[in-house]
Amino acid sequence: MSQISSTAFADSKPHYRILDGLRGVAAIMVIWYHIFEAFATSPYDQHFNHGYLAVDFFFILSGFVIGYAYDDRWGKKMTMKDFFRRRLIRLQPMVIMGALLGTLTFLIAGREMWDGRVAPLTMVMLALLMHLFLIPALPGAGAEVRGNGEMFPLNGPSWSLFFEYIGNILYALILRRLSTRALKVLVALSAAGLGTYAIGSFSGYGHLGVGWSLGGTNLQGGFLRLLFAFTAGLLMSRIFKPWRIRGAFWISSLAIVVLLSMPYIGGSATHWMNGLYDAVCTIVLFPLLVWIGASGLTTDRTTTRACKFLGDISYPLYMVHYPFMYLFYAWVWKNELTFAQTWPVALVLLFGNILLAWLVLKLYDEPLRRVLTKRFSPKTK
């Protein structure tokens, strides 16, 4: 996740609590998507299919929140060094935790690769070292220890953090300097590119579930996903004017659940149909949902608490859940199990990861970020 993390807002600005909650809803949908991957032979027969689009939603949120939080702080209030320091403190601790958990579960599984071979321990340690610095592994290289082409084979979802960092770098160096008109042109061009990639089935399956590997057109697809979604969110932060919407959190949450749980649209001969669905979701519907979420207010205690909790765990949940998915996949495949046979374990996996995310947040992420902020962040100017 994006970015999937909450950005530290400028101290004096109000907080978009509903957007935090929606980030948490999308993170939970990612878990369900990954659970159902265990029972699919291809995207065509994965019934809970579109959870990968949560990453595009995260990137839009990231662009919106970063623009809102930082656009007016450059210069005397914040230097480029300050910005990167803030982002590293916010993002990197969970990258490290995800890599460590991924290493642990890989060792528990006997270092078994997808083809049954055992990965050398030296290569596992190299993969861990590269992961800690978000250096992607080349498909087929020794450090690509699972053998399925992942950039970060110890914790697959870290690929989106790789792109998140690129988005932050682009923002600091280029995007923040663009006029609103220039940003609109960039959003339009990247939307056209992303739509062409999806509808033209450049992924091979007519979907936008790309970016997790350096193989095929994954890298190009990942850059297109980031470029459109991040710049669209940034543009929205500049032109945003709230609408009057009641129940914004519940409306947007329901829409996210429905959109991300849809099965594959069409089939092997009609890739364009699923590509069109992905393009409409990413280019039209997700920015609309972010706008709706930013327009709403949490007016009751239940919604406020739900949004806070979901927002707090969203980034840790995204970063800690997948190492345990690898173990789940191995168990399901070796025993040729169905979802009907494993749904109790799937529920344990879901709620266990939510609990783990909360524990990691409270016992590791927040305390470490407080220490790092105190140690490395300059005093507010």
List the main descriptive attributes of the protein structure presented here.
mainly alpha; disordered N terminus; 12 helices; 381 residues
Q: Could you characterize the architecture of this molecule?
A:
- This protein has 381 residues and is mainly alpha-helical.
- It has one domain (17-370).
- Helix content is 65%, strand content 0%.
- The chain contains twelve helices and no strands.
- Helix 1 (17-37) runs parallel beside helix 8 (248-261) and helix 7 (218-239) packs parallel to helix 9 (271-295).
- The two termini are 31 Å apart.
- The model is unreliable at 1-11 (pLDDT under 50).
Poorly predicted residue ranges: 1-11
Terminal residue distance: 31 Å
What is the CA-atom radius of gyration, in angstroms?
20 Å
Could you give a short account of the major beta sheet? none
Helix count, per DSSP?
Answer: 12
What percent strand? under 5%
Tell me the total number of β-strands: 0
- How much helical structure, as a percent, in the residues? 55-70%
Question: How many domains make up the 3D coordinates?
Answer: 1
Overall geometry comes to globular
Query: What structural class results from the helix and strand content?
Result: mainly alpha
List SSEs in N-to-C order.
Answer: HHHHHHHHHHHH
Quaternary status: single chain
On the 0 to 100 scale, the average pLDDT is 93
